[in-house]
Each structure stands twice: as C-alpha cells, then as structure tokens.
Design goal:
This protein is of the alpha/beta class. It has 13 helices and 35 strands. The protein binds (3S,4R)-3-hydroxy-2-oxopiperidin-4-yl beta-D-xylopyranoside.
Amino acid sequence: MRQRRVRAAGIAAAVVALVAGGVSVLPALAAAGPTLAQVATARGFSIGTAAGVKTLASSQWRYVADTQFNSVTMGNEGKWDATEPVQGQFDFAAADFIADYARTTGKRLRGHTLVWHSQLPAWVSADRTAAEQRQVLLDHVSGVAGHFKNTVAQWDVVNEPFNEDGTFRSSVWYQRLGEDYIADALTAARAADPAAKLYINDYNVEGVNAKSTGLYNLVQRLQARGVPIDGVGLQAHLIVGQVPSTLRQNIERFTALGLKVEITELDVRIPLPADASELTQQAADYRAVVGACAAVAGCTGVTTWGVGEADSWVPAFFPGYGAALLFDEQWRARPAYSAVVEALGGTPSVPEPPATPSLVTVASWPFETGLAGWGSRGSEVTTASTAAAHGGTGSVLSSGRTATWQGPTRPVLDLLTPGKLYTVSAWARTASGSGTARLSMQRQNGTATRYENVSADTAISTTWTRLSGDYLFLPGATALSVYLETTDTTGDLYLDDVTIQTEGTPTSASPSVSASVSPSASRSPSASVSPSASRSPSRSPSGSPSVSPSSSASSGGTGCAVHYAKNDWGGGFAGDVTVTNTGSTAVTGWTLRWTFAGNQQVSQAWSTVLTQSGAAVTAVNAAWNGTIPAGASANFGFLASYTGGNTDPSAFTLNGTACTLR
Ligand code: XIL
C-alpha cells in the first residue's frame, strides 16, 4: 500500500491552471517553454487525447491534458452502448461531460463513434428486417449527431469497417445492409450536423496495404456518388519499431483525393518492462508518425489514445505490453514527448508532473451505532447486527432476501458533487456459503435508471471481502444510492465499514491536514504516486496554500486583485491570470473583464469561458471554479497572438468591481 501525503500541487509550467474542488492552487511561473499544445496550436495543428469520464475527473489527468493537448476525443462515451443503451432512449450524460470539458477548456472535440460493430448493445443485433435495421442506424446517427450539432468538429461516422484483406468486415451492418450502410450513415450524419467533418476510421490502414487500399477504393466510390465524406482516420495502434515506411505516401494518396487525414488513436506499445532503448525507439516512432502527418498539408492532427499509463487501453487489451503513451505511470513525460514537440517544430521543455492529490473522506459508515440511514432495496430485512463485524463490534445484516438484487442501500445524492470522481469501498461477508458480492450505485436520471457497478468479488462466510472501486458521479441525477447485492445467491449478507472518498483540495500548507486522509485509501495503483517520487526542487513550494497569506488582509466587503503574467515567444504568448477575492465573502460566479492594450487576439483558453470582442475580453468562470472563497483565488490561462507590442492590460473588473493589480 502506498502512503499519501497532502500537498498543494506545485506547478512549474508557465501556464497551468489546476483547479480542484472549486479553489485554484496558485501556480508558480517558471521560465518554461511552450507546452505541446502551444506548439501545435501555433502552427494550426491539432494534438489530441482520448478522454473518458473517469480520467476527466482526475486532477492529475487534467493537469497534463489541460495544457498539453488542444483536442479531445470521446474515449467510450460516444459509443452506441453509452449513447443508446435502450432503443430510442438516448443517454448523453457521459458524452456531454466530455463535450463540456472540451468547451470549457477551448479544445477541439472529436466525436467517436456513430456506427461500429463493437460496444453495441444486444438489442441492435436482434432479429429484424433490413429496412428496420437501416432505420435503427439512421435513428441512431441522427439522434447522436443531432444532439452534438455544432459542437463536434469531426465525427468518426463509421469505425473499423474493413477486414485485413480490404474486404468488408462482416458486421451486423454489412451483413444486413451491405456496403450501403456506410453511405447511409454518412448522409444521415451530414443532415444531422452539417458543420461536422465526417470521417471513416480504421486500424492497420496507416501504411499502403490491402486494407488501406480497400479504404482508398471505398472513399473514391463514395465521392463518385456524391456521398459526404471529409476525411479518413488512421488509428495507429502501433508496436514499437514498426511504423510503416509507407505512412507518408499513404497519407498523401488520401489527401490527393481532396480528403483530410487524421491520426486518431496513436499509441506505440512496448513489451514490458520497457527499457531505455525501447523508449528511445518509441520516441523515434512518435517522431516519424507526427512528422509524416505534419509534413502533409491535409493531415490536420494527431490524437493519442490517452495521456498516460493510467488511462491507456494497452495493458488491458495487449497483455504483456504497455508504456504506449507520451506520459508514464506518474504522469512524467516520456522521451516520445520531446520527439513530438520537435516533430511539430517546437523546442521541448519537459513539463513537471502533477503532485499527488489528497484523498478526503466524504462519508463513512462504521455501523457501530445503528444503521445511519441504511435500509432495504426490497422486501428483505435490514438490521444492525453484532453477530459479525469487520471493524469494531457492529455491522449491517440483510436477511430474508428473496431476490439476488436485494441488499442494504442508502441514498447518497446529497453527499456527492456531480462531476466528481469518488472511491467507494465496503466490506462484505455472507452468513453461510459464498456469493458474488457487488457494490454498485443506482443512479436515477428522470425516468431512466442506471445500475453502475463499482466493485465485485466473491464474498464468503469465514472472512470479510473488500470491495472498492472508482465511481464518477455524472451530472443530472435526480436520485442516487449505494447498495450491496449478491448476484448468485439470496442468503443472509453482512456489510460493514463503507466509505466514500474523493480527491480533496489542500486547504493548508501544513501536512497535518492528512488527518482527514484515510491511510487505507488506495486508488487504482497505477495512478498513485509514492511520496518518494522524485520532484525537482524548482517546483513551486510544496504545500503552498491555496489561500495566500497576504490576502488575509482583506479590505472587507467586495474586492479583488489580479495577477496577470505572460510567456511571450514573439508574435504569440500564453497568458496566466490569477484573480484573488480580497473581500470578506465568497464570490459565487465570476466574470473578469479587461481590454487589451494592443491587437492581442485570444485563440484558446482553459479553466474559463473566454470571449473577445475587439480588444474587450470577458472571462467567465468554468463550471467547476465558479466559487472563490474569501481570500482565495481562481486561475485560468489562454493563448493569444499579436503583432506590434504586447503591453499588459492596465485594468480589470471582477463582477463589475475594479481590481488592484499584483
Ligand atoms: C477502446 C477503449 O479505449 C477501451 O476503453 C474499450 O474498452 C474498448 O475500446 N479502436 C477504437 C477505439 O476505435 O474505440 C477503441 O477504444 C480502441 C480500438
């Protein structure tokens, strides 16, 4: 087990906004060069990552993704099983979460994916006529693409339609509708969202080969028929040392058709453990892929399939392989990071990794003094028991169960904050025999109910079994409960020591805050950083408080101070703005306005929703940093270009009140 220490995130990159729990952590401005995103943005190139709802709720993932990438792709949330799990019942809670992230951080959004053979709910393949199947496809494409109208820059409309020999994959779509399903999907997507660029995406189509030639011939047939098709996506799930030598030639033959090309899911996997020479080869591979794309005018961007080891699909899907992305287990840049920056013409400046967040207990039920709000899901009986206990002398007993889904439950809607990631843990035990215990959340969204498993394991009668897992609480819920069941038995069941924890915001410079951090807390081990993780001394002071001491000299009432800093590389700059509430009451919802002194033009912003009209700029809080407690600060950043001088703005207002400058 790894220990956790509470420390404020130290930040060394020039422009970083780490916002957790609504209060920003003051960044230190080090003399760092531009980030990967800045290098890409400066040349009009997209550098993206797949994003998932769980990764998005991790402050460490965000720390890296916010600043290093200017594009995001829906990792799983845009797929059929997520968006239309039941015919005609669309659920966009998860995909909207990704779209909101893209919007509030100013990133381009890639939609993934409308029609695929995988991650399909069973109902899609149920017996029906071809005409009905076609209607299923059209309804889905219209429903999903329509929902995201004007927010998705590119859709992977059809994913993985080919076999390795260039013939069509025998999916439910091809079997029932023939090749025309592709044209139908593209046409429906164009009708639903005319602004979105439409892509066909596949793997093993990076080099010139039978499969990519099948794709090449298909897009020519589509073009000849006037079917809307804007580009092809080359996934690029590669093995170290195996970048196809014909990659650039292949990209060029597609762009010669007037199509755009994107590298959509790049990762370069290495047999584990990865050694230094393999990481060097991997850097060369990344350089080759990004370089080949950047060299061709119609190749507009590269997306990696995740940020770091913790959110890579490789270890789970290619056993024995890993180390496939630009960042490692501790969010440190791998050599490939610098290679990618260089491939885009930049000078690498290796970013500092984020600090380990604290883990705060938001609820715990030791069941030493009664049920504390726990009850039954059905007709079974829920009682406080001293017949068995994991810790102390009490537990909960669920008896008289007549169905597997019955078991102890408790409403938790009022305890959890939408959009946050939680670790939910509990101990389970059977009264006799064994059963598969499942700890889950029941989430009601209007009339739709979702049962979301957190952890499952075998429970037995002779000892306690720990159930623990991450849970991302999606916005929009009307009810939420945690519950325990056994999926294969109805015998008596014990439950004890339930806890719900989440990443906290350090509120004190003193590590003694760690009193609120449970020593038994363990998140997914790959995402945790041991205290011995090497950190450069140049980082901002470890444990720097989010409330700066000087701001305690509050002026009373309302007041604000702004610190405006920039990292200027001539013609372009990254702005970093920290606004401190010097008043005596919290600011809830903020708008910061200023007027540029020259012709500065913002192209991208993060941790704010920023609009510019002429020289006038309006920066409104993002969804998660709208509250600035008295004495605390919010921080956001932006990228801008200019010609001539780059004089700092001389005045700022916060919600209409003039701020002092720091
Ligand atoms: C993968 C996800 O990363 C996994 O989390 C999921 O379990 C399976 O799908 N090609 C694609 C992506 O187009 O959608 C796949 O993503 C990876 C291969």
